[in-house]
Structures are given as structure tokens and as C-alpha cells.
Amino acid sequence: MFKTYIPPVQEIDKKWYVVDAADKRLGRLATEIASILRGKNKPTFTPNMDTGDFVIVINAEKVDVTGRKRQQKLYRRHSGRPGGMKVETFEQLQNRIPERIIEKAVKGMLPKNALGRKLFTNLKVYAGSEHPHEAQKPEVIDL
């Protein structure tokens, strides 16, 4: 009766976009990026296929959060060994690895399966304003 539209592989057009994260709110930025990675902004969106685009995020060290999240938001990781839990605040992680903050925010908004892991590989995050993807001729989008 109702059938899911499956676009042919030739019809899936992958583009590259550049997003400047300077002075943008983390959550608002991450939702827009996840939507583009998923392909929800396209008429050919199919939930079980990779119809999304590539996203390059620059100036990751300048991303912003509201309130007291700089001191109170915690990022946890575990080594897998007993007592191996490491906890650090937003501010500490931003000083150490600023790319990780955007990566974790976007990854949490993607599906938790093989498709989500594949879509996550289409995200490229850089701390500074330079990126090595000029050959792909990315379009600059303002979110």
C-alpha cells in the first residue's frame, strides 16, 4: 500500500558544506549539522540510507555555550579498567581537544547503529579556520 521511496544511487548527490562555529551555540549548531549529515534537508531523504552531505566545521575552539555550562557540563570517558573513569569539564576539554566537543554533540544526535557510524565519518571538525578540503569545493553555509 504505502512504500518508502528508495532513491537510485545515481540520484544521490553528495555535496560538501563548510560551517563556521565561531560564536555559535553548541546545541543549535549540532542539530543543524546532524540534519545535514542525515540528509533531512533533501527531498530524497530516506531514513535507512546515507543520503546526506559532508560537513566541515571550522573554528571549533570558538563554539559557545550558555549559562554556567563552561564550568558545570561534564564529559566522561572510561578506559575499560576498574577505576578508569575520567571526567573533565567543558572548559578543560575545550582547552585540550576543542574538536571533540562538537563531535560528541553531533554523534549523540545521529542514529545509534551502523548507519549512524557511517554518517559520522562524513563530519570533519577543525579547531582553526583552515581545512584541507579545498579540492572538494565546499559551499559555505551560515547556520
Automatic annotation (TrEMBL):
Gene3D superfamilies: Ribosomal protein L13
Gene Ontology biological process terms in this record: negative regulation of translation; translation
Pfam families, per the entry: Ribosomal_L13
PROSITE patterns documented for this protein: RIBOSOMAL_L13 (PS00783)
TM region(s), chain numbering: none
Assembly and oligomerization: Part of the 50S ribosomal subunit.
UniProt cross-references to PANTHER family, sorted A to Z: LARGE RIBOSOMAL SUBUNIT PROTEIN UL13M, RIBOSOMAL PROTEIN L13
NCBIfam families for the chain: rplM_bact
Family: Belongs to the universal ribosomal protein uL13 family.
Name of the protein this chain belongs to: Large ribosomal subunit protein uL13
